[in-house]
């Protein structure tokens, strides 16, 4: 009743002085507060028109206290674009049950009370409240993603397009879709996305864009619901770990990417009856996920995509399976933060090879070369299958500071400072590994094989190997090696190589200590520039005070001695065979090849960059 009286008072003011802005100002305030936003916006437009047309200059200047409607609309539109740039193109409206494309989503917003209230209130001030605009837009367009495993007949785009999801016959995948949309709606979310029916699987361009955007979509979801169709109601801890959902390739990024996740059992009740808003905050559930996946707790809760720790990420998915063989590589694109062509039909060796090539080329991380199994046709230094990463990588023996100091003391007398400095400089100047036309250019320490003797051990065919500068060792391989007792008696050239790992220089990691560590989703080790970010003492300017230079020289000598001490320790090697064009191919091994330097003084002559097919 009071609002009606206030509106009548505003109308009277307008009637008394139709050319004045004051009545329309009062009318806008009343209509806005009574949520009659269309009329409020129209009253505000009229008020601005009265201000602009008044002959009184002082009154006319009052329009500067407000924001013109077109500016407010433009700011809202920019916020919408920024929000939807990281969202799927199609979403299901959980209220209506209709699948909506981007244009319909925006149109729906523009007709909503949320949009009209935002526009009506935004115009009242001279400076736009951008943060509030962004918050309102984010709240309206917040969407829920589904992570699940495909079972039986799943609804596709053509099955739901133009239809109300809730009206469809609730069988098979349709029932799952309906329950998901209802769950999202009941939790207050307007939009929902399912991979089965929100992507046009027949459109290759759309499929490619979707695969490359999937991680980002999950990352920016307001919530991701994980449906465990094989976990019955009232299950005990451990059921999640044993769910088939935990065996699928795509589900790794679907869990790691989002910040908020909720697990649901077969009957759509919360897993372990945990009704907290985010199961990533549950110590019980996260421990179960960690034990089941081998993924560390920090990554489970706050994963950062990028190239760092490539070998560890490959191990996460090494036992996973996908319906399409190429998907085991494609499902890792977002985890590594790369965008690559999606070419279904290329087979898994090519798909995995292209991914690993990109990881090594961008990051210089050679840990992806640490595997056992069969070589890929893409490049022999890469594995044919992701399962080759299942076994943990060889870990160098941990040296205590006391052991290092003992070794350093011995090296000072045996090798001399000049030698270790020259060796440090030689290795410091090596370029990063790179790929070109499927050929790997690998900086390494290459020990030439001088003898190969065939033998049998425990029903396996093994070879006893002698190499310059190394202790004798044995390897097991399915490839046939040509035995020889002297390199002068063979036409075949073999090398045991230690891929050069720049981390052995123990240089400071500026990406770790700089502000980059504080930024979300920054790939702190991508691009070849990461090699130049880490400053070597050898590259420091000599133009400095003598005391400072003396301190740097002492530190450099210490670093060089520590490097040499580490080079004497056992390492994981692989065997290369020289080809006719003087390129090399890796000889795959069934077990890690562990070698150890016998003569450290021979290393400078063995530092090379080899081209591997």
Task: Briefly summarize what is shown.
This protein has 613 residues and is an alpha+beta fold. The protein contains 23 helices and 15 strands.
Question: What does this entry look like structurally?
Answer:
- 39% of the residues lie in helices and 14% in strands.
- The chain is α+β, with helices and mostly antiparallel strands.
- It is elongated and about 110 Å long.
Main β-sheet description: 9 strands, antiparallel
Count of DSSP-assigned helices: 23
Strand fraction equals 5-15%
Calculate the mean pLDDT score and round it: 88
Number of extended strands: 15
List the uncertain runs: 512-520, 522-534
Q: In which range does the helix fraction lie?
A: 25-40%
Distance between the termini: 84 Å
Derived from helix and strand composition plus strand pairing, the structural class reads alpha+beta
Rg, Cα atoms, Å? 33 Å
Backbone shape: elongated
SSE topology:
Layout: H1 2-16, H2 22-33, H3 37-53, H4 57-60, H5 69-84, E1 91-93, E2 99-100, H6 102-110, H7 113-122, H8 130-141, E3 143-147, H9 157-160, H10 173-186, E4 191-193, H11 204-219, E5 223-227, H12 251-256, E6 261-264, H13 283-293, H14 297-302, H15 310-316, H16 327-330, H17 333-336, H18 348-363, H19 401-414, H20 417-428, E7 434-436, E8 439-457, E9 460-467, E10 473-476, E11 494-499, H21 510-513, H22 530-533, H23 546-567, E12 571-578, E13 584-587, E14 593-595, E15 607-612
Parallel strand pairs: 3-4, 3-5, 5-6
Antiparallel strand pairs: 1-2, 1-4, 7-8, 8-9, 8-11, 8-15, 9-10, 11-12, 12-13, 12-14
Helix pairs in contact: 1-2, 2-3, 3-7, 5-8, 7-8, 19-23, 20-23
